[in-house]
Amino acid sequence: QVQLVESGGGLVQAGGSLRLSCAASGRTFSGYTMGWFRQAPGKERELVGSITWSGGRTGYADFVEGRFTISRDTEKNTVSLQMNSLKPEDTAVYYCAARKVYEGSYGYWGQGTQVTVSA
User: Fold this and answer.
1) Angle ∠(9,3,95) on CA atoms, nearest 5
2) Which phi-psi region, left, alpha or beta, contains residue 4 (left: φ > 0; alpha: ψ -120 to 50)?
3) What is the pLDDT along the chain (119 residues), one digit of tens a residue?
4) Are 35 and 64 spatial neighbours (Cβ–Cβ below 8 Å)?
5) 74 neighbors 53 (Cβ within 8 angstroms)
6) Residue 50 and residue 34: Cα distance in Å, rounded?
7) Which residues are 38's β-sheet partners?
8) CA nearest neighbour of 113 among 72, 89, 68, 81
């Protein structure tokens, strides 16, 4: 059974940094893409970025603007989201998710972690 557990959220001032982690368990994730999503109050969930487990290829949403970096540790089975230069509009619940590389939708989700950026 796949489990994704996020940690590292919290309150930070604008311009600050946070590092989110996602502990993945329940299977080997080679052949999977790991994604970070976020959902702000009253808004739809949106993709922040993703990384392929095997090759480590990353992709990011335009709003990231080079501020965020996704990485994975295949030995520890973790995926991280390093967020720098945070803005109040980055305030949201952040979710880790997983999908098979050849599938279009993410089938596994974590419970989310709150990130609040104060002005």
Assistant:
1) 35
2) beta
3) 899 999 999 999 999 999 999 999 998 899 999 999 999 999 999 999 999 999 999 999 999 999 999 999 999 999 999 999 999 999 999 999 999 999 889 999 999 999 999 99
4) no
5) yes
6) 5
7) 46, 94
8) 81
